[in-house]
Each structure stands twice: as C-alpha cells, then as structure tokens.
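Summary for the steering committee. One of the milestones for this cycle was to obtain a three-dimensional model of the protein with flavin-adenine dinucleotide bound, which we needed before selecting residues for the alanine scan. The sequence and ligand used are listed below.
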Amino acid sequence: MAPGAEDSKVLVSRLLREVLEGREDPEGFFAVCVSVLGQQQTRSQFLSLIRPLSSADSPLHRVLTSVYQGYYQTEDNELELALALSISDMKDYQISAPSQESRLQQPKDSSNQISSVRLTPKSEARGGSHAQLAVAAGKRNTSSSQSGAWGSVCPPKTAQETELQKGARADKHDKETSGKGPTVCVFKPSASFSGLDMGQMTKDGDLNELEKPKRPKNRRQRRKACGQQVIGLPSSLSAPRPILLWFRRDLRLCDNPALIASLEVGAPVIPVFIWSPEEEEGPGITVAAGGACKYWLHQALFCFCSSLERIGSHLIFLKANAEGNAKGSSLCALKDLIKETGARTVLANALYEPWLKERDEEVVSALQKDGVECKLFHSYCLRDPYSVSTVGVGLRGIGSVSHFMSCCRQNPGSALGVPLDPPASLPTPSQWPQGVSLDILGLACMPRRKDGTTIDWSANIRKSWDFSEEGAHAKLEAFLNDGVYRYEKESGRADAPNTSCLSPYLHFGQLSPRWLLWDAKGAHCRPPKFQRKLAWRDLAYWQLTLFPDLPWESLRPSYKALRWSSDRGHLKAWQRGQTGYPLVDAAMRQLWLTGWMNNYMRHVVASFLIAYLHLPWQEGYRWFQDTLVDADVAIDAMMWQNGGMCGLDHWNFVMHPVDAAMTCDPCGTYVRKWCPELKDLPNEFIHKPWKCPTSMLRRAGLTLGQTYPHRVITDLEERRSQSLQDVTLVRKKFGQYVDKHTGCDLVPLPSRLVSEALGLSHSNGGAVEAGKQFLLPVITRMEFKHQLEDPDADAGSNPYNAVLKGYVSRKRDETIAFFNERDFTASVIYEAAQRKERLESDYRKMEGLPQPLALRGKARRTPTAKDRFSIVPGGAVTSPW
Ligand SMILES: Cc1cc2nc3c(=O)[nH]c(=O)nc-3n(C[C@H](O)[C@H](O)[C@H](O)COP(=O)(O)OP(=O)(O)OC[C@H]3O[C@@H](n4cnc5c(N)ncnc54)[C@H](O)[C@@H]3O)c2cc1C
C-alpha cells in the first residue's frame, strides 16, 4: 500500500534525522524522497524541507542542495551548463575584479587555471597611453595581467606558472607510469572514489557561492558592452620589437585572446601560420590532417589572409619541412623567423591534443632559453581539459556528459569571460618577412589522372560551404533564426537543416565556443540540448588528455581481441555509399561530396559498419578523418570508440539501417537527394528497394545490381546476433575485465584519475605505484550484461536488444528517457539500501551481536544481470581481484 502524505512526511523527517546523525548518506536520502514523495513534490518541496539545516548544519545543507540541483539539472540546463563550464562571471557586464575571480576559483589547484585576456572596468585600466589602442567599434583598449616569465597559458601569475609546470611534469609522469605492467590492483573503495564525495563537494564546490548568471538581453547588447571595455596595459610587454602572433586552429579575428593580447604591447604584429603535418599527426595513427580537412584549411587560410589584409595586416605562411628531424619543426621555423625579424615575443592560443601540448611546451622552453617571451592563451574549448578534475564527484558514470558536467561544476575553473570584439587594425612591421605562398603548403593538392587531368574531388565541398569567418557567423545567425526552433525535438532529421552546421568552423577556430555559447544563450530560443553539445565537445578533449591513445587503441582491453571482419569489399562499399541500403548510402555519399553529415546519420553509418558489417571502428574513424571537413581527432575518436563498443560510454543502442529512416527521412527526401537513381521509387520502397516489385522497379528505371547495388549483406538479424556473441566471447574469455558485481566492463584508469581518486595531487602522481593497473567499472550496454548470462541466445530474444526501431514522433525518446530516469532512481535507492545493510551488519559485528536471520518466505535474491540496470553502472569500484 502506498504511504499516505502524512506517513511520507514522517518517513522523510525520520530519515533526515538519520542523515544528520551520519547514519544515512545524503544521496540515499534524496533517492528515498524521490521514491516516497514523487518527482513533482520532491522538486517543489525538497529545498524547503531541508531549509532548517541551513543554520543547523550548513555543509550538509549545501551537499543536499547540490544533490538536488544535480538531479534536476536537465530541467534547468542553462544554469547547469553555466555552473559546469564556469561562466559564473557572466552575471554582469561589469567584468569581475581579480579578487572576486579568485574567490570563485578552486583554491587548491590553480595549476590549470587559464583565462583569456582579462577585461577590467574602466577605472581599473592600467598602462601608458602610448600603447592604448582604439580597437573595433568603440575606443576599447586591451589589457592583461602582468607579463609572465614563461609561456604558460595565461594568466601569467608566477605562482600559477609554477603550478602549471608541476602539472606538466605530472602529466609526463602519468604517461610514463600508465599501463606499464600487467599487475592488477585491488582498489579499495574510498569515500572520494565511490560515487559522489559529499565531503569534497562542500569544500570545493560551494554552489551557493555561484549565482545564476544574467543573460544579455540580446546579442547586440553584449557586443556593445564588450566594445566599451577599457583594457589596461602590462608594463613589461611594451617592447617595440615585433611580436609573432602564431595562428594555429584559431583562424579568426573575433574573440581571439592571443590576437587581442598582441595589441596590448603596442608593437608591430607579425601574424604567422606554420604548416607542420608530422607534428599534427602525433605519435600514433590519428589522420589528424585528412584530405577534406586540409582542403578546408587551405580555403580558411585564404579567407583569413583577406580578413587580416582588411585590417591592414598580412599572414606569413611557413612550412616546416619535417623529415623526422628537429630541423624541420615548428620550433625551427619560429627560430628562423625570430632571427629574421628580431621578435622577442611569441603569442598563440593553446591546443590540447597531448602531443601538440607537448610540442608547445618544448617550443616555449626552447624560446625562453633564447630570451624570447612566449605565451599561450586558452580559448579552444570552454574549459581547459587539463583543468577538469573528478574530485568531489568520483568516477561513477565517467564518459557520460552528465558526469563531465558534474566535474566541471564541482571544480570550477577560471571564469569564462566575455567574448572579445575583433580589432579594427593591427600595427604592422616596417618590413615583412619572406614566408612562402599558401599553395606551397600543399594543402589543396588534387590527384592527377594518367592523362594529366586533375581529379577535383573538392568541387562539391567548395559549393557547399563558405570557408570564411563571416561564413561561420552567417551560419550561426541562420541557425539562431531558424533551425534552433526545431533543434530540441528534430535535430535527428536528415531531410531538414535543423542543426547548426558549425562543426568545421569550431574545429578550425573560425568561431570560438565562447562566442557561440554567448550567442546561443542570448537567442530567443535556447534549447538545452544544443548547449550540452558544447559540453560534449569539451568532454572529448578531456578524454583525449586522459587517454592519448584514444584514436587508435580500444579503451576496453578485452575488446581488443574482438573478432573483426577484414572484408575489404564491404569496407569499400561502405566508404563509397554502395552498400545497397539507401539510408547508409545517402549519408556516405553526402559525406564524400560535402565533407559533412549530421550527428544522427553519423550514428546510422557507424552502427552499420560495426554491428552489421563487423568492421573495426578504427576503419570508420580513419575514413571519417579523411573525409570530414570537421574531422576532429578528439571528438571523432571518442565517438568511434563509443560506437565501436570500446569507449567509456557504450552507446546503448544500435541504429537499424532501414528502420532509422522513419525518424530521420520518413518521406525519402534525403535519400532521393543523395542517391538520385532511387528518386522515382515510391515512398513505401525508397528505403528498401529490394522489396519493390519488379514492375515498379522497371517503372522507376531501376535495375538492382546495375543502376543500384544489391545489398552487401542480407540477414541483418543474424549479423547482429553474431556481433553480440563475439562480444560475449571476449567478455567471457577476459573475465578479469568484467566486474562480477555489476556486470560492467572494467577499464584501466590513467594514473591522473587514480591520483585524483586517492586524493593525491597530480604532481604527487609518483605515489601511484608504477606497473599497477587500477580498474574501474564503466557504462556498459545492458544487452551485453544480459548476454553474458545466456551466451547462445540470439540478439532478438535479448530483452535489452539495443536495436532502435526508428520512430516518427518523439514519443519513443520520451519513453526511453522516462525508463532511464526510473531505473536510475531505482538503482540509487537499491544502492542506498545495500549500503545501509552493510553498515548495520558491520555495526553488529563490532558490537558482537548476532546477524539477523533472513526473513523466511521472502528469500533475498542476489541481483543478476537479468535485472534492469540503469544506464549508469551500479556501484563504484568494488571489485577485488
Ligand atoms: C561516429 C561519429 C563521429 C563524429 N566525428 C566528429 C568529428 O570528427 N568532428 C566533430 O566536430 N564532430 C564529430 N561528431 C559529432 C557530431 O556528429 C558533429 O559535431 C555534428 O554532427 C556537427 O554538426 P553541427 O555543427 O550541425 O552540430 P550541432 O548539433 O549544431 O552541435 C553544435 C556543435 O556541438 C559540437 N558537437 C555536437 N555533437 C557533438 C558530439 N556528439 N560530440 C562532441 N561535440 C559535439 C560540435 O562542435 C557541433 O558543431 C561525430 C559523431 C559521431 C557519431
């Protein structure tokens, strides 16, 4: 019988007392509230229910408040994202004074606190008038804090730099110690390691201190506000020698911290771009500079050169002719340029791929030795991935965007700040250095046929995009005026432009994520789903910093042994859009012709490659890297790892190549556009021409096997079952990588995360013993857990069969969301109950009391993998080996 309202309240007050006495944990208490009061009442009454605690036990009150906020985060997504990504200083156009900022920064770890140029209110502007430059629309001057001694990411305060150096050393150490030996360590669950660490939360993440940021009323208002900022000058940077402004993936004038910082100096600025493909590639197979990306880069550089010329400047191109020796490196090119120009300062915006970060650190220290000041600014992501910490959150659910956002919320980095206006002009040197022509970089080389004619594969890409910064802003404007209104519910549609199409601009830094976030928040329609996408982007970079092998090495050890197909014919058919499945083919042809497809279609083609063709995810990753104009090592690798069943966050679904069309292309418009040979088929058969009667095929002018290919595989169900059984096989074979309690896969942790979990600072990473592996249960597809219990069952009979059937309305999505939420609540309650039982049992043992007998007639069942799991793996690290 359901308890009455009074009973519920009594129960809740009793439990609250238990929390106060430390006998119940806050998360468990919250779960019980949700269970007995229901969603609505908990939402409306929880905060008043715990209000008495604010004076009696304020730390506990804060913890409970943040559990509540965490739970309802999706409903107040803007606030959530704001907190998560530390845009707490957006609350006013008055830019925060340093003291206020430091209050919001995490006191312990300033190592990776980075910021863009700090804007200060007029009254705080410093520096001599000779260097005050009027920029952009208003008489805005630029400022920064003091100049730093070495080229860390700003702000260049000495103490922070030291911390940064420590951080860099620790990262290096991480690399050295991670994954060296086979020893598997028994990881004792500690408070900070298992799920939410409430103690830490109050210490590090006082949510009450962060106010909800006020949004600018409209975008124009924000820009005007930016334009009115008066920015002071650093004293030590006022050398008259030219400054090298090293552009990389920040090809923009708007909101470019390094560019604005270069203006502060009052010296001539020499913008330079160095092409060094070997450095881009890094140590493994990343295909960082694929064909389509290089083509985009060529065009973007061309446009950017014109933009710089419009403000009276010029872009110098250099090519690092790397042949595996230091002579051909970016450092070498910079040194030569420094010699030629006499520059004593190099400024750039930071990049976060581990190998590029390492390269930059080497450049900085080498130049510093030569007496050249070098500074890096943060702007590529919303959050510097090296500053994200799991402290206070734990590792449960790692890999999901919710977990990532909780980490950001609990450990706020430096404030995001307001976007910066573009400069109106750049001071020029009296003499420009030589450089090479853009064509010499060889970014847009087209292959030649035997007869000498060129194969211009880029013609359609050229037609499809405007490669300039203005093009980025036009796309953003168009999206905010139109697509954004359909984004929340219809972003999966392939037949309508409902997403922003901004990914290539974000990748090449033609649009800063900060600018995008501000505009998105200032727009009339602000779908939370869109804002979360930027958190996804940051999450990918965080994962790459934790797992530098992400682009080529499966994160789940046992899956490395998966039986993958090596059928080159299948791979070729997939790459060329000739699989015989119209939806897959349309998407792959769109990719080839335009260098892009939307997120939903990427899921469709990835599912097809992996679950049906059984080809390794690395093949998909590499093809995407070569053909996408937005190919991004971090995002692409994370998504392919997840889709390829090897990443931290298993996709809990498989897209069916025919049924998915119901959601994304119900009338076949998309297929007709990219597979024109099918255009005359009736809607009924457009996604399955093999079912079309011969007479209709004839009328549509289609001959299967000639004008359109036969299907490369026909028995989809069988292929899926095979894939499932292959996974089960490796999970059985490598049982040491499956958590016995939860059925989740176990993933070796990088030492940076182990250090955080053990409460060690990164710089003390040495305390984590080399050669030991720490394993963590990670999000695992439910059907895999179930299949382990019944390995021979076919995919169709698995109650958690992950194949999405496709849907025409959002009802299915909503139902799934409902089930996930319900399961999550259930699993939290279940865990709370278990914890309580354990505590009671320990207490009885200590007191020498007998253990209670199990209730007769109510046999207590050990949960099995057949039970419904939430998508978040149950339990933290509990598996002793
Ligand atoms: C297998 C696979 C591979 C992918 N490879 C890439 C890639 O190489 N480069 C890339 O930028 N995106 C990649 N994505 C993510 C996503 O598909 C694209 O970012 C998105 O389709 C770009 O279109 P949009 O700008 O209209 O996105 P919108 O939906 O308008 O989103 C806005 C921005 O958010 C970011 N974003 C959106 N979705 C994601 C995501 N899932 N993960 C991280 N960031 C996201 C992008 O920067 C995007 O431009 C991949 C997805 C899958 C399934």
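Key point for the committee: The chain has 33 helices and ten strands.
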